[in-house]
Structures are given as structure tokens and as C-alpha cells.
Amino acid sequence: MNTGVIEFYQDNDNVTTTRAQLEPSFMDRCGPDGSARLQRELVPESVEVHPMQGYGAVQLGTHKFWTMRGAQRDQLVATPKFVHLWRHRDGAWQITRVISYGH
Question: What domain count does the chain have?
Fold first, then answer.
């Protein structure tokens, strides 16, 4: 069940507190033809996941952002860290809070 509620905190952008606010911010990172201007790459060895009793889990890690030239990676522009809070309810996982920092 998606309620459209998500808090997104980022050190290089405004805070958003709903999916309706977040989607335009993400779409702004796309080119005029809808192609990605940025590509996110998870650093697998950086990922930690810890249970949060009565709620779900917290996920910590690092990701890389690359500018794109067509379908090819062009330049590494940031390697920030992230914290994702996941809620487990009615058999489904939903991300509810994101903190991304170190851009």
C-alpha cells in the first residue's frame, strides 16, 4: 500500500515530504527526451541493513552518481552516503524516509 508519504532530505536540494513533491525533483534530472542525465550506482560492499523493531529496517550505504552522455557514463560527479528507512506493513516494504549527504 503506497500512501504517497515519503520524507527526502538531501544536502544539495530542498526537503520534500510527499511523493508528489519528490517526483518533479527526480524528473528534473532527466533530459528533454526523458533520458537520464544522471545514473545512480550502488556501492554494494557499502550496504548495511539493520532491523528496526516494530517498524521495518534501516539501510545505510554509499552510492555514486554519474553524468550520462547518451547511454554511456561520462563523468563521476558525486559519491554521497545514504540512509533509507523502510516500513514493513501488510507484507510489503515501503521506503518512508531518505537522507542523502556528502554530494
Answer: 1
Prediction pTM value: 0.80
Q: What is the mean pLDDT of residues 73-99?
A: 95
**DSSP H or E segment with residue 82:** strand 81-89
Neighbouring residues of 78: CB distance < 8 A, sequence distance ≥ 6: 64, 65, 102, 103
Give me the phi and psi of 27, to 5 degrees please: -65, -30
C-alpha grid cell, residue 27: 524528473
Q: Taking 50 as the threshold, does the pLDDT of residue 1 lie above it?
A: no
Report the CATH number at residue 21: 3.10.450.50
Q: Which domain holds residue 35?
A: 5-101
Cell 503506497 belongs to residue: 2
Mean pLDDT, residues 79-87 taken together: 97
**What is the H or E stretch that residue 94 is in?**
strand 92-101
The predicted pLDDT at position 60 comes to: 98
